[in-house]
Structure formats: C-alpha cells, structure tokens
Design a protein that fits this description.
The chain is globular. α3 runs parallel beside α5 and α9 packs parallel to α12. It has one domain: pyruvate-formate lyase- activating enzyme (Alpha-Beta Horseshoe). With 374 residues, the chain is an alpha/beta fold. It is built from 12 helices and 10 strands. The strands form 2 sheets. It has a 7-stranded mixed beta sheet with strand order 2-3-6-7-8-9-10, covered by helices on one side. This is PA0069 family radical SAM protein. Pfam families: Radical_SAM. InterPro entries: Elp3/MiaA/NifB-like_rSAM, MJ0683-like, rSAM, rSAM_sf. Keywords: Iron, Iron-sulfur, Metal-binding.
Length: 374
C-alpha cells in the first residue's frame, strides 16, 4: 500500500439536491472507505430540511489545494502496464468523469471520492523542480514515462497554474521521451514544445474519446472538452507531426459501447494513427457512484448495463486481477475485443506502443544552490 499522503479535513456533505449538479459528475460527497463516522441530515423540528430542499443552492466551486510533493515520478510495479514511470501533476480532476478509476485515491486524503474528487484539486506546485532534481540525479535511468495516467494533466486548472507545461519544459531540455493521455484540447497550448520533440521521436499523445454524442458527454464527462473539439485536437496534433492515438476508454455496455466503431472511424479521419480500448472498471467507491449515475440518467437500462459488466468481470461488479482488469473476460469481453481488432485492421491503425527513444537523454542542469533557497 502506498504511504498515506497529507490528510485534509473532509468536506461536509453537499447541501444540494442529490439528483444532479450542473457541470459536475456526481452530486454526492459520499463517505470514503476509511471514514469512521457517518453523517446524516437530521430534522431539528424547525423545518430546516424542508427549507434546505426548496432553497436554491449555489453549485460548489473548485478549490485548489497546493502541495509540496516529496517526489514526482512514480515507478510502475504492475505487470500488465506497459510503461515504467508516470507523472500526475494533480490529484483529483475537475473533468468530473463519473467512471474515473482514480476517484478512490481521494480517500487517502480523507476526502470524498464523489464531489470532493472533482471540486478539491491537489496541485503539486513544485512538480517541475522535483522532476529536475530527479532527472539530474546520478542514479536516474531514463525509461518510458507517461503524463496523466491517473488524473488529467490538462484539466481546467492547468490553464492557470501551468504545472504540466513546466514539466514538459524540463523533459524537453533533457530530451526525455514521454507520452500523454488526455481528453483536453489544452494540450494544443504546448505544441511549441511537443512538436519539436515529436520530430525527434520523443513524444506520443493519446486523446480519450468516449462518445461522439454531446448530450452523453455532458453527463458522462461534464467539464471535459466536447467530442468534436477533441477530434480537432487530434487533427491539430497530427498536422504538427505529433504521433497521436485515440483511447476509446472506458467502454460502457449499452451506453457508449454501440459507438465503438464510429469513434474509431472519426478519430482516424481526424489523423489518429493508433487506438486502444478498455472496458469500464468499477473499483472501490467508483462502483456505487457509477450505479447511482446509471439510475439517475439511464434507469431504463441500468440493470442491463450492470448485468453485462458482471458478465465481463467474472460475475462481480469489478475484477482487479492483473491480466484481466484491462480486458475483461468471457464471451462478451471477447466479442468486444474482436470488434476492436476488426475496426483497427480495417482502418489501418496501430494497436501497439511506439518504440521509446532513450538514446538522446541528457540530464538537465542541476538546480542551483541559491535557487533552492526560494
């Protein structure tokens, strides 16, 4: 188990109707799995609950909490992941994707994987400095590295803080190869850094496109870029010579699953040269959050969706086993993989990672002793 990070006082339950909040993936600040106390609303006899239900509540604002990270590169220890290092400049994500497998990580901060995950964002403000120190270290060995493996490195707060850009500046200086996974058009801002590195074989980008339906995107990923905007980003990257792929992940049965081939066709037409897909995963608190979302938005098919997920997860809501967690198992998982393979072959897309160029790496200049004092 990873060491427990700095703990932050848990937010009070959201004072809003539980059905939905415009622009948020969930309306509930559900308790996390480590919570020792449960809170519930109580009628004090003065009609406070009725008043709370009828009063218009302001939507919760995003709060950025600055953190001084002890380290910024995480080493991968999982046998079914194809990269060695990862960097996540932020914890929590304002995109609010209801299915996000990283939601349970907010539990380690004593925060809710629900509303807190998308409204209380932890920003590792010294990320670039920590990265420089690491890459300049005598024992550092360059390996495959991915930005934004847990939470999106280009989520809305990045426009103001620029932590991801400063990280890429250090990677560019040292000619360290990296990949990015994002569902944000904000990556276009850093084309001046990314395109020259791509020309040296040092960068690849993957855009997550889960649906072409704007109405579905608004409730599935409420603060992420619109589907058409992501396709334009794929085109902009491809036009700049950046190898760009598409991630049709997660695939949710009967929700976005029928769109699989159409998404791949649209991404290919925009310039994507590779593709991959992962069935929806429901670890820990993601499971009740997702099922609540299903009941609110798709009550007519919620049971059918969960039944199909269980068919692909050995009869359970979630299967965390290495080797099957990213593919599922059983007849429905095999059919989904067969559809993916056929579409990829038809379009001439790649489904394997590009070779990582490590030979150009040069350690960056070390931080000056004076600079480290400020």
């Amino acid at each position: 188990m990873p060491p427990a990070p700095t703990r932050i006082a848990a937010a009070q339950p959201a004072l809003v109707p539980v059905d939905s909040i415009k622009g948020r993936g969930t309306a509930t600040a559900m308790p996390h799995r480590f919570e020792q106390r449960e809170r519930e609303q109580h009628d004090d006899g003065w009609g406070s609950l009725d008043q709370l239900a009828t009063e218009e509540q302001l939507p919760p604002a995003t709060q950025v909490i600055e953190e001084q990270a002890g380290k910024i590169i995480s080493s991968n220890q999982s046998p079914d992941i194809t990269f060695d290092y990862s960097i996540n400049p932020y914890r929590g994500c304002e995109h609010g994707c209801i299915y996000c497998f990283a939601r349970p990580t907010h539990s380690y901060l004593n925060l809710s994987p629900g509303l807190d995950f998308e409204t209380r964002i932890i920003a590792k403000v010294n990320a670039a400095e920590r990265l420089r120190e690491t890459l300049a270290g005598a024992r550092y060995e360059p390996r495959s590295l991915v930005l934004g493996t847990a939470t999106d490195a280009y989520q809305p707060v990045e426009r103001r803080l620029g932590l991801t850009r400063r990280i890429i500046e250090v990677l560019a200086e040292s000619q360290h190869p990296f990949s990015v996974v994002t569902k944000s058009s904000g990556i276009e801002r850093d084309m001046d850094l990314i395109a020259p590195m791509a020309a040296q074989g040092l960068v690849s980008v993957y855009l997550s496109v889960t649906t072409l339906d704007n109405d579905l995107a608004r409730i599935l990923e409420p603060r992420a870029a619109a589907p058409a905007r992501r396709l334009r980003t794929i085109q902009a990257l491809a036009d700049a010579g950046v190898p760009v792929g598409v991630s049709v992940s997660p695939v949710i049965p009967f929700i976005n699953e029928p769109e699989l081939e159409r998404i791949l066709e649209a991404a290919h037409a925009a310039g994507a040269s590779s593709a991959f897909s992962i069935p929806v995963r429901l670890p820990w608190e993601v499971n009740p959050l997702f099922q609540d979302w299903l009941q609110r938005h798709f009550p007519d098919r919620a049971e059918r969706v969960m039944a199909r997920i269980r068919d692909m997860r050995g009869g359970k809501d979630n299967d965390a086993r290495f080797g099957t967690r990213f593919t599922g198992e059983g007849v429905w998982a095999e059919l989904l993989q067969a559809r993916l393979r056929r579409a990829i072959a038809k379009l001439g897309l790649r489904n394997e990672r590009r070779p990582v160029q490590l030979a150009l790496f040069t350690p960056p200049r070390k931080p000056s002793a004076q600079g480290s004092l400020f």
